[in-house]
Amino acid sequence: MSAPTIVALGDGPPPSQADVSAFLDSVFTAKTSNASVDAAYGLCELILNSKVGFRGLESYGIFSEIKKAAADKKSAVRREGAQNLLGALFERFPARQPASEFSFLVQDGGMLACALDALADKGTVVREASQYGLDALFNHLSPEALVVGLLPALQTYLSKRTGKWQGTVGALKLMQKMADKAKLEIGGTKEEAQEKEVLRELMGAKLAGLIPLVEEGMHDLKTEVEKQSVKTMDSLTALLQNDDVAPKLPVLLDAMQKPSSESLGKAIHVLSQTTFVAIVTSPVLALLTPFLERTLYNPTTPQETLRKTVVITENLTKLVHDPIEARTFLPKLKPGVKGVLDRASLPEVREIAQRALDVMDKAMAPDEDVVERLNAVDVAKILDAETKKNGGAANPEAYKVLKPYVCEMIAEDVNHRLVARIAARLAPYLVGLVKSPEAHQVIADGVQKYYVDEDHRKFGEPEKEDDGEVEIVNADFSLAYGGMLLLSHTNLRLLKGHRYGLCGRNGAGKSTLMKSIAGGKLEGFPPQDVLRTCYVEHNQGEDADISILDFVAKDPEIAKNGTPRERISEVLAEFGFTAGPEGRQSQRVGSLSGGWKMKLALARAMLQKADVLLLDEPTNHLDVENIAWLEQYLRSHTEITSLIVSHDSGFLDNVTTDIYHYEPGKKLGHFKGNLDAFVKVRPEAKSYYTLSASNVQFKFPPPGILSGVKSQTRAIVRMTNVSYQYPKAPKPSLADVSCQLTLSSRVAIIGPNGAGKSTLIKLLTGEVIPTSGKVEKHPNLRIGYIKQHALEHVEMHLEKTPNQYLQWRYQNGDDREVHFKETRALSEQDRLQMEKTIDVGDGKGARQIETLVGRQKWKKSFQYEVQWKGWLPKYNSMISRETLTELGFDKMVQEFDDHEASREGLGYRVLEPKIISQHFEDLGLDPEIANHNEIGSLSGGQKVKVVIAGAMWNNPHLLVLDEPTNFLDRDSLGGLAVAIRDFKGGVVMISHNEEFVGALASEQWIVRDGRVAHKGTTSISLDRFEDSRPGSTAPSTGTNTPMNGLASTAASSAMNSGVEDNTDEPLKFKAKKKKKKTKKDLKEQEVRRRLRHIEWLNSPKGTPHPVDTDDEE
Description:
Layout: H1 17-29, H2 33-48, H3 56-59, H4 62-70, H5 76-96, H6 100-105, H7 112-117, H8 124-139, H9 143-160, H10 165-181, H11 190-204, H12 207-217, H13 223-237, H14 249-257, H15 261-272, H16 282-296, H17 303-318, H18 323-343, H19 347-364, H20 376-389, H21 396-415, H22 422-430, H23 439-459, E1 471-481, E2 484-495, E3 499-503, H24 510-518, E4 533-536, H25 548-553, H26 556-561, H27 565-574, H28 594-607, E5 612-616, H29 624-636, E6 641-645, H30 649-655, E7 658-663, E8 667-672, H31 675-681, E9 715-724, E10 734-742, E11 746-750, H32 757-765, E12 772-777, E13 783-786, H33 802-810, H34 828-834, E14 837-838, E15 847-858, E16 861-868, E17 877-880, H35 881-886, H36 890-906, H37 913-922, H38 927-932, H39 940-952, E18 958-962, H40 970-982, E19 986-990, H41 994-1000, E20 1003-1008, E21 1011-1015, H42 1058-1061, H43 1079-1097
Parallel strand pairs: 3-6, 3-7, 4-5, 5-6, 11-19, 11-20, 13-18, 18-19
Antiparallel strand pairs: 1-2, 7-8, 9-10, 9-12, 14-15, 15-16, 16-17, 20-21
Helix pairs in contact: 1-2, 2-5, 4-5, 5-8, 9-10, 9-11, 9-21, 10-13, 12-13, 12-16, 14-15, 15-16, 15-17, 16-17, 16-18, 17-18, 17-19, 18-19, 20-21, 20-23, 21-22, 22-23, 33-37
């Protein structure tokens, strides 16, 4: 809404009392509604065109006549006339003389109550006239007038509780309308968006007084009041711009609507499960403080709920950055926390309460640097000084009456740092109140200048335009995706040669912004023919079979420029792609590793003569050398502007000159300097540096028991003299590799791009079959595998929700992804083998195997129950694993082993949507997204969480991660790191992220030139985690972690256990010989089993039941 129109008071003489009375008589006694309305408008024009103006409404007794007529129970005509006149005044006066707002809303209780009471009138025309007037008044008020004038009037009306319920509903509707007017919406002009933003900020600061008032109405005995109160509360809570609290609003509103110890406990539980990251402001405190108060001051609150409440209070307090807001709300909670400290029975709760009190004391401590809030009295002094300087007030009495109202509005603008609005707000109210015709604007400008200078003094001057820099983009835009507003009327300004880091939470819309720019869909961004923009990504899979040179030459942009093939070859050579028939330029695009694909994408961008590079996660799949090369490339090309999305904090630190950050309120905030400088300004952004679980918490399920493996250091997977050569490749990718893994392994596989790291992983997991050598694994071993291009797992299911995907993947009792492994795919030779008949020497001749239906321990291995084709089940035979393998049925045996392993892992997993939702929540994906959003609409980071959830569903013993740091933001990366640290199974990972590997891996396998060298146990850098002591290098505290004291050696940690394993022998897991037990032994066994069962009952949900066997120790 624009500033009110400034209209000078009419020059006509003041009307006589008789003239005014004649109009009033016409309004109140007219025989038709139209005649009454016409008389009302005539009276408005009579007063507006005179020198008296809005002051005549009081001096001629118009308000008192309206109140008398409105209260006349005997005459519906007079009551209708009163509302017609009030509607005309509300419509005409604020638009032409904004100072009249004070008379309508504040002076002598205002006229709002008169209009609201009329909503209960029996006559329809009276109610309609009243509603018309209320709507007209609302539409003419600025955000400041709504908050300073209308909102207090509504609060006063609702507080009385003596009026009719229709008036209460009307007041609540107006409050809801005000909150809805402040909501962010897709579309609209920039000016409209700014007005919404101002109203949202000003109204949000008043929530502390509004929420208790509306909550009281939620329990009103009148159904209509209760329903409207719920709607109004829903709109008020939408003013919160806090991503942490917003998802919990339905539970909090339900607890307000149906107050009980159960609903309050549920609300506290939901809040205790919330990781608070965003800055906590007045609106959030206004909403949450009542819940915390009720819990703290209720003597029957359970100790566990008290503990959660105190923890929530502490976490909220840490994020209150404004000491004035802390001093407003925390005194309400402090006595309650002190009571918990004094009376709590559990020492743990008392300790937490003491910690919370310390944090609260620190937050409320006096601070010399705190900028105190301004009030109307302070503003009045400045306004008086400016008015006196410009000739003084023409009507001192009216000036004195109006001054507090106007000064209160200016104080709101100053306190919310909206000082640029002051002149436009103030000038219209001074028209006719000061002596000189132009003085109202001069005074308003003077007051604004004073507060602009004060703002600069307190907070520093705003960033000035860059001298001598070339501006290439200055776009105002809004950005939405799938009906969700990501950015609202924000600005993006790019200078030539600058490198901008784009930072924000996962799912904030970083990649969406980049793709909108690349697709030419961002409003205000220069088109390609004006500013050449190139989106650099890794995906070159669509033409995987053509040569690199042909792939680049085929690019439409390069072809359009007419770039000769020789020039293309030269540029490729500069990027390391050697020319010639044997050179890298002749290789297939599909054969390139991630690092070379990035170089290829940059070469394409250079040939396209890009002015702006859009780099989306450029360091994904790059080794350390290539990352250094990319940093140097970007820094050296000062003619190119870059916009970079990356979760690699070191890379952003070394490259960026500016940071754009996704701010609250759907805005982009600009900060000069690199990521380090940004963190100094915004300490809460430290999560870009540390692997912390404070933001996103992942919780991996326990791996379960692996039969026959009683030691954490016993080998469960072994490769012996393995070589592998891709089809048509000139030489093997891996040659003569031997290694093994245990449940305690924490292995990082490192090496340059293209060295064979992913191939080694695929051999270990059974994705591919070795050309020579042997890969053995425990028959019951479950492996969770996340590929380098992790999204391959889900890109065939983009139409499903994550919940549906998991149900599809495991609906048959095993993991469907396993069926895609090469080791499980049947070749033509395998199919012929399946049709062969075999004779097992049982006198029934040669028969054909139909399937395997069972398995049991036999000697040091297993024997399998074979179902014969065409024979009844009673003729099934038991055949040993070794015999079946020798006969060529190893894939059938492997398939049965995988199915049994998966079935064992899924034995305690119920494939129900509710259980699956909890599983996704444990892995950092909001259940709302998991249940209702299609995978195709998720961000890259969210898709990776779906992949991780799928891999962890069947409780794997070994977690294999190929480039786990790709696609995940810093928050999620920290959560994944802590989950890996605390995981009770083995972990193998490929990652170029030294910070991630250093924090987790105690052992390294270095792959270079097809060979694997083992670097023994190293110390783990636990100081990479926020919850560890600084400088700590001890291994993780988990029981499964290798001991730090083991010496470095050329063998892996698993190899170090060769004394126990006899590494030269095949991988076997033998059972002990049975011996007859005595009665005493049997009794002791029964006790052990019972205790084990009790322990299992007390264990976390999802823990597999320990198997009762006869080989117990």
